[in-house]
């Protein structure tokens, strides 16, 4: 997470370790998607800094997409 968020303007006190623990099976691409989505949430609200809440919303959005894709693949195999 630190690699993908190093060029982002983060609010002080953001705990990236907690965010990473919320997505234990995530790939590098999914981590990148979470950082990008968190930045987009901040931009939509016309803010310069990304908050912990932005990251949490991004995790739920990205991991939701991932679980939906896994469910559709499982339906194909049954």
Automatic annotation (TrEMBL):
The keyword Oxidoreductase does not apply. GO terms for molecular function: ATP binding. Residues 14-56 form the AAA ATPase AAA+ lid domain. Keywords: ATP-binding, Cytoplasm, Nucleotide-binding, Proteasome. It comes from Aphanomyces astaci (Crayfish plague agent). This is AAA ATPase AAA+ lid domain-containing protein. It comes from the Eukaryota. GO terms for cellular component: cytoplasm; proteasome complex. It is found in: Cytoplasm. Its main location: cytoplasm. Gene3D superfamilies: 1.10.8.60.
